[in-house]
Amino acid sequence: MNTSKKRKITKEEVRENKKIKKQERKQKKIKKDDKQSSKNVKENDMRWNRRYSDYYLTEVMPKKEMYKLKDFILDWWLDSKPCDDAFWCFVGENPHAVFMFHNKKNLRLISTTHYRETEIEKNSNLGILMESLIEIIEEGRYTRSRLDWVYMYRDNTNSYVLYLMEKKLNNIIDRVINTPGYDWRDDDELNYTMEGLSENPKAVHIIKEKMHYLKEDCWWRLASNPNAVSLFESLKEIDIDTLRCLCENPNAIHIIEKHKEKLDSDCWENLSANPNAIKFMEDNIDKLDLCSICINPNAIHIIEKHKEKLNDVCWEYLSENPNAIPLLEQNIENVDWDSLAYNENGIELFMNHFEKFIKQFEKAIKGENIETLENVNPIYHNICFTSSLLHLTSNKKSIKLFEKYPILLNEYILKNPMIFEVNYEYLKNKLNYVDYEEEERICSYLKENNINITKEEELSIKNRINTDYITLREIDIVIRKYNEKDEYLPESRLIFEISIERLIKAVLHPKRVNYYLTNYNYDILSDEYVNDSSDDEM
Length: 538
Hints:
Helices cover 56% and strands 2% of the residues. It is globular, with a radius of gyration of 32 Å.
């Protein structure tokens, strides 16, 4: 019989065992994280080897999307083969590339890029897709660990994204007020949220509901917000810092006039660039800042009177002014080409003097003697950071220049909304629209004009007539309307616009209008009843 007693475990041994188990758990977590990290790396390597961007652009986009890359952009991409990560990084910022991210796979690629963090938060066309992107990033399995909410608060004006911002703000406030003894003024997250929203012209309604969480910095930012002017109209006293910001606000001129005796040199500098302050400036011409005036699109007549006083900085600012092109043409020797590259109205002038622009690359391209454009080698890593070129890539009107000189293309062009064109082949397969030629034949047939057509063609026309077909003309009208407004046109919106137009035509058809007038004395055009002659006599 074993009479030995069980040894009692000491407190020191218990502590040591707990320490060992804790260390083991920590090691398991490290191994799990390393495994996930290596998996992510492997996935990225596989994606790099497959060059998914090439596959998407050549196989998926032409068949499944309403838009496609313009041919010369696609040719450049396939030939130059820049970093695959760069593609998803830059198109994420492109406001006209939203259609690409309805596929969550493509949305995930933004959060896995190692190239750099894309500023997709600024993309106001992303809308409801931003919620999906937030979910993907918050999963924590991808390279990108967070969204830059500061960009969203300040720059994103999409109504749905604003809803997400307000929701997040409410969560922050709930956290702050439910923390005992915690002062909201010390909460950095709440402060930078309110600061960002204060600058957003579409977020004023959110700010009005949270006025008691505004610090002094927020009031300065609000003062420059064109939609927040009403918050300052009732103030009898305005401090000088707020007044300086109000001088930048195009909608605050009536407030500035009430406090004009307080204006200092900084106020006049800001006021000089204000496009709605011209009358105010004309009455105080001696107090203006000449360089700031050069930015002002409505102040060209003032600049012309004082052009002999313009220095190099003034001409640099003036070169960005969209209304200054005639003045720049008359003083071509003073044009700042880097600044002109920003100017959407200055592209024609830029192209007319392109050789001067080309010479700027001589120093950037090492060892190259550039005499003509044909002699330039595509050394993208040397020329892509040249100031003029970077500015040009963001200029919507520069596409024609890059189409003429594709040798100058670099990755940053992917941010430019004009790299896309309507994919009519896709729309033809999707909507089975009637082109202009077929529409003309149908119209001639309905008018019983003598047209030489075969029985097969006549049968085809009859089949078209008996169906509710869409014409290419209807599509092009909607596309032109959005192009003129420089707005992105989603596929769903295209269908909606065509449907609305048809509905209006059906409701306001002359036969329908006449029917209601004849039978009910009701004018549907003006939505009122019309008295007939018998009623007037009575």
